[in-house]
Amino acid sequence: MKMNIMGVIFLCLTLGSGFTPSTTYAAHPLQNDIEEAMICLCGCGQTIKSCPHQNCGYAIPARARIDKYLNEGKNKAEILDIFVDQYGEEALATPKKEGFNLLGYIMPFAVLAFAGALIMIIIRKWTNKGLRDEEDTLVMSKKDFGSDIDKQIEKELEEMD
Amino acid sequence: MLIEIGRTSLNIAFVMAIYVAVASLVSVIRKDMRFVVSARRGIYSICLLAIVSTGILLHAFLTDNFKLKYVAGYSEKDLNIHYKIAALWGGNDGSLLFWVFGLALFTAIMAFTSRKDKDHTFIPYTYIVLMLVLLFFLTLTSFVTNPFDLVPAGLAPRDGRGLNPMLQTPGMIFHPPALLWGYVGFTIPFAFAVAALISRELDSVWIKKTRRWTVFSWVLLSIGNIMGAEWAYDELGWGGFWAWDPVENASFIPWLTATAYLHSVMIQERRNMLKIWNMSLIVITFALTIFGTFLVRSGVLQSVHDFGVSEMGPYFIIFMALTSIIAFGLIIYRYDDLKNDNSQIESMLSREATFLLNNLVLLALAFATLWGTMFPLISEVFTGNKITVGAPFFHQVNTPLFMILLLITGICPLIGWRRASPENLKRNFILPGSLLLLTAILLLISGMRHLYAILSFSFSTFVLVTIFMEYYRGIRARGRLKQEGPLKALAMLFLKNKRRYGGYFIHIGIVLVFIGATGSSVFVKEEVKNLAIGESMKVGDYTLKYEAIRTKEKPNYEAVLAFLSVYKDGKKVDLIAPEKRYYNKFPEEPTSEVALGRTLKEDLFVILASFERTGEITVKAIINPLINWMWIGAVLAILGGFYVILPDGSKKRVAP
């Protein structure tokens, strides 16, 4: 079995897969930031920084490229543009805040605001209706029970005092 | 022979489900309770048949019966016995059978517990709805993706293909069943809601009868979600616990709507209000459980959970559309009956209004998560551009909503039912409000500048203070009225009002989840370094010294382990061994086994990223502050949930 594992290691090293340690990039302050801003296109759906695949054919070379571009003095926007030019906007972890994509950011808050306003209107309508009902009840009670009852209530209240 | 029994059991269950639905319908038409009794017996027999077929499939896994396509596809001889059990739900066919098993079992329990209930006409309708849902799943398991399908005669492999290495982790034994049965559980309140709509029994009885089912399903869904987060943290090896992956979102969205429902039903029970709202919420929650299953199995969106992908997507989307159209159609049809007549919210400053606000934010979160998950598809349809919506998008959009939700969790108990007076508000808010401000000021003075972290910790303080005030008030009132000591009064509060004080206990757990999530998201530190034997690296307060590299052999995998001594303040505190595993059946998919040093303050999270023949390794070390408070909080919330559904012990008890 030990031979098997050494075989696997040898195979991977000779094929130049992700076993070769080549990732000491976090030294540059922007490395993490850029890795977080880019999605891994291997299918995992996570950022380049978080891709769980140990031999990822996209995230590992992308990290190396980011490191290389940073060492060449490129800034974040320039590096992201290089990847977008090559892979399209799909390469970014979040859509750019422009055009149709703005809808993506605005919609949840717009819905919240709309629903909130709607609920406020409904509650206000209910509270107003409640107040009107209370007034109606008072008017009704005076009309129905007449002054004898009023006098009796007042008398009892005086006695209570 | 056994396989035939398993397959036939499913077929008989299918026929029985049709019988139960028809018998229930006849009982309604003829008003003859004998048919209900017969239907109930039919439900018990379906449960038995589901147990038999699931048991036979499990037996096939345990005995390595690779004549079955499903067993050959998801197991192997050398697989650990507990993973052989977990393989039952490791793929599409088995997980659908497990769904059938869960739904049949829950339906049988519901039928048994409601067997003496002769006062309500909606029971037979409930059977009909449950049977129609069950028939959908039985159709899939019996005719579309049967787990008892055989490999062609003579071609049975000597060994199976094995279980996906990412699923060979203890969390996978509990995470999928909890999620699946959480989904299944919401079928019961959904069925009662639809039955109430059909039978026109639209008071709060159906809600009271399904209260325990709803909380139970919510608890299962919570367990499923938190174990999924734990799995991501331990198994995926990137240091986080939630990536806002479409499949993660699929189980989180119904959890949010179910949470909203759990809160809003309290208003209906107490004030007989929000009937349409509650009906809609349970229908939406049920629909979202089906939608979640569609997302997992359709593969329409890229996900790290792609092992669930199958051809089943269209079935689920059609079923979801049909059930939603019928249920909402019924709500519209019964609109006049459901419409609120007398009761209304009397003031903006009332607990009812804050509950509505809580519902609004929970639904906004559900919508934002759903919207973000689906936006790549929406954008592609309208613009033709392929875009990606990853975790950073959800952090931007959902975090402010989470903060509002946390604040409302604290505000809600401070405001009385019906109408709160300004004096009352002042008296209730002064202490927690002051402590909120004090926390924020102290955090600012200590140098914290991250807005959401300050808000999260300050609001958490606010919520915890309001909850402790509630307990204090309850203890004081009992002490005054019943002359009880503080401990006895606290115990009696829990015993006498499980829902209210158990609910606050859940809130304490949720606050701890917020604290843990904030700490581990905002203050995380990470270092990646190449090390030769004897070399060291620093991360946070820790120094890691690389001591040795070794291999380990197990029946179905081989592993490479790097041994690292952990030093803190110059003292050796631990020897850890992150490893990389190579499963015999999946050599191209190595997995990382993380080494964790857990304390309440922080986790030291160490991953063996790679190694060379020379013995040189690359280590990724992460400090995750406060993360264990998240797991502790989740456990408390789950325990609180279970406590809330415990039997009352007194039949006279009135709903709070």
Secondary-structure map:
The complex is a heterodimer of chains A (161) and B (656).
Chain A: H1 2-15, H2 29-37, H3 59-71, H4 76-87, H5 101-160
Chain B: H1 2-30, H2 33-62, H3 69-74, H4 81-86, H5 92-113, H6 122-144, H7 171-185, H8 187-199, H9 205-236, H10 246-271, H11 275-298, H12 313-333, H13 335-338, H14 351-383, H15 391-411, H16 422-445, H17 451-482, H18 486-496, H19 498-522, E1 525-531, E2 536-539, E3 542-554, E4 557-568, E5 571-576, E6 579-583, E7 586-593, E8 595-598, E9 602-611, E10 617-625, H20 627-644
Antiparallel strand pairs in B: 1-10, 2-3, 3-4, 4-5, 4-6, 6-7, 8-9, 9-10
Helix pairs in contact in B: 1-2, 1-6, 2-5, 5-6, 5-7, 6-8, 7-9, 8-9, 8-11, 9-10, 9-20, 10-11, 10-14, 11-12, 14-15, 15-17, 16-17, 17-18, 17-19, 18-19, 19-20
Short description:
Chain A has 161 residues and is an all-alpha fold.
Written account of the structure:
The complex is a heterodimer of chains A (161) and B (656). Chain A is mainly α and 161 residues long. Chain A is built from 5 helices and no strands. Chain A has helices spanning 2-15, 29-37, 59-71, 76-87, 101-160. In chain A, helix 2 (29-37) packs across helix 3 (59-71). Chain A is elongated, with a radius of gyration of 35 Å. The N and C termini of chain A lie far apart (98 Å). In chain B, strands 2, 3, 4, 5, 6 and 7 form a 6-stranded antiparallel β-sheet that branches. In chain B, strands 1-10-9-8 form a 4-stranded antiparallel β-sheet, with helices on one face. In chain B, a hairpin with a 3-residue loop joins strand 8 and strand 9. Chains A and B meet through helix 1, helix 2 and helix 5 of A and helix 14, helix 15, strand 1, strand 7 and strand 9 of B.
